[in-house]
Amino acid sequence: MALFLLYESASGYALFEAHGLDEIGQNTEAVRNSVSDLNRFGKVVKLRSFNPFTSALDALTQCNAISEGILTDELRTVLETNLPKPKEGKKAKFSLGVADPKIGSQVSELTKIPCQSNEFVLELIRGVRLHFDRFVSDLKTGDLEKAQLGLGHSYSRAKVKFNVNRVDNMVIQAIFLLDTLDKDINSFSMRVREWYSWHFPELVKIVNDNYLYAKLTKFIEDKSKLTEDKISDLTDIVGDEDKAKEIVEAAKASMGQDLSPVDLINVQQFAQRVMDLSEYRRKLYDYLVAKMSDIAPNLASLIGEVVGARLISHAGSLTNLAKCPSSTLQILGAEKALFRALKTKGNTPKYGLIFHSSFIGRASAKNKGRMARYLANKCSIASRIDCFSEREKGTTAFGEKLREQVEERLDFYDKGVAPRKNIDVMRSAMESADNKDTEIETEEVALEASSKKAKKKKQKGGDDIVVDKVTENTNADSSEDPKSEKKKKKKEKRKLDQEIEVDDQSVDDGANGVSNGTKKKKKKDKNLEVLEAASETKKKKMKSKSKDSE
């Protein structure tokens, strides 16, 4: 039985025919030894046809289809034109060797060509890949490497392409940075407290907040200069007038030692750094909340932005979290305790990162495990909706309804109130999500209509401005030159003369029409000549009058 090999290179599809396989006896070790030697391998495998890709885009589409196990029209035509056609009702006397079993099954289903993929075929294809540039004589040196590099970059870029607004890696990095900032701010603020307590030790007992303490350190500077005049400024910082007065009184009777100006400057600079870090931490938290509303809105509305982000970062991505069963999600973050319990045959942990949710804290001690299991179930549903939903704009309807279910379950454990069924809750969530989508669509249509109206108004306003400018220019020109006014007066006089002439002609024509309505065209021509002569005499008279007036 003849064996053909399909090789998908970066430059095109190539079909090879293997000869002398009976002599080799399909021994993979013999083939592996002969692959490195082109003289021996060239006797066994020969090129049958090569069909290059038309463009880089065509190569990318073909590569994507093959990786997904899809038979394209181009590959089908290549196989049907170059392989021998089997007779109807009889088995084919050849087989096609392919590297991927997926594409092999697709080819055999659609074209009825028998395909095989085993170690022997893979070794032959490895030899083809090694000596491909020698088999295809039309390829120049370096062409194949360029094609492979370009196709590799474009294929990787196409695989990595995703929605920029739904990048869960940003959430993972933000929550890691948030945790490290919390640790750093705590350690730095403790350092500020210890450092400034040498100068003003009583301030530690009055102010407990780290950010406020750093702010007061920056404001007070030297305690000896703190007077009652600064009570109003201290109340603005602390927010309590009594506490501000207490700080001033403590500064007067302080037991701390005096610091040199250089030491005070260093303490103030370090306090300013702590304040900047805490401000950046606040901005980072706002950024995390915004990103979670884009990436996982339902999970964030169910369990909170920080706990949801920690679950995503611990799982590695939102997709990994969505693939996790609820039992795994329940103990995420408690792996050490789980394996220790399995090793010592003790009790396994009931919750991991999910413990930081407020629902677990509100549940009673005996119901904490049950509540954690139920909450993990709802979190897995919310993460799957966020990950696999095809809605362009994420909605929080499902997360809000799932949160209501968790609240109802808490009431059921505490008071015995029966919760709603899942199917009813999901139906109401679907209805609310559809209503929100329709509201968003109507808002977008209204915005488009208002923008079009605004554009039309602007265009009309621009036309009015142009007309005003033209009138202004004409007025300015008329006011500038007195000679132009005389010319205009002369033009107006000429227009009046022409109008008078037209009126005289109409009167004469009317009279002629009444008296001589049945006369011929020759008489009308004579009348017109007479009228023209009369008008010329009138013009001469008007000119003479204008000269006399000048």
TrEMBL record:
Region (Disordered): 447-550
Compositionally biased residues, Basic and acidic residues: 460-471
One GO CC term, this protein: box C/D methylation guide snoRNP complex
Keywords tagged on the record: Nucleus, Ribosome biogenesis
Subcellular compartments: Nucleus, Nucleolus
Major place of residence: nucleus
GO molecular function: snoRNA binding
Pfam family, one: NOP5NT
Family to which the UniProt record says this protein belongs: Belongs to the NOP5/NOP56 family.
Name this polypeptide is given: Nucleolar protein 56
Native source organism of the sequence: Lupinus albus
